[in-house]
Amino acid sequence: MLIPILVVRDVPEAIAFYTRVLDFALEFTWPEDQPFYAGLRRGGDELHLNLTPGEGRYGHSSTIVLCEDVDAAFASFAARGFRPPVRPESPVHEGPLEQTWGTREVYIDDPSGNTLVFQQRR
């Protein structure tokens, strides 16, 4: 099993986004009072967050999250308040799209700038 570690600028902010919008559950924080590290779970997937303050030191990762129905996942995120950015240069950030390589995907950036690729394989 691989566990990606995303570098974030603010752990509580990232936890709120991942748990309230993207269906992840908080497994642990360390330390508990002012966490700089956290573990999250979504189904059988695990993701860790690591605080690394300082401009340019966070937000450079991307992770693929496989899902059965990317459209339903995206609709659930929108129902929880996610508002996709308008990105004419990257419409896959605005909503699910069929990709030429045979997947249906939507890209979601977390508050630190890391990208999660929600992907449905055909």
UniProtKB/TrEMBL annotation:
Lineage: superkingdom: Bacteria
Gene3D superfamilies noted in UniProt: 2,3-Dihydroxybiphenyl 1,2-Dioxygenase, domain 1 (3.10.180.10)
Domain VOC: start-end pairs: 1-121
Classification via Pfam families: Glyoxalase
Record-given protein name: Glyoxalase superfamily protein
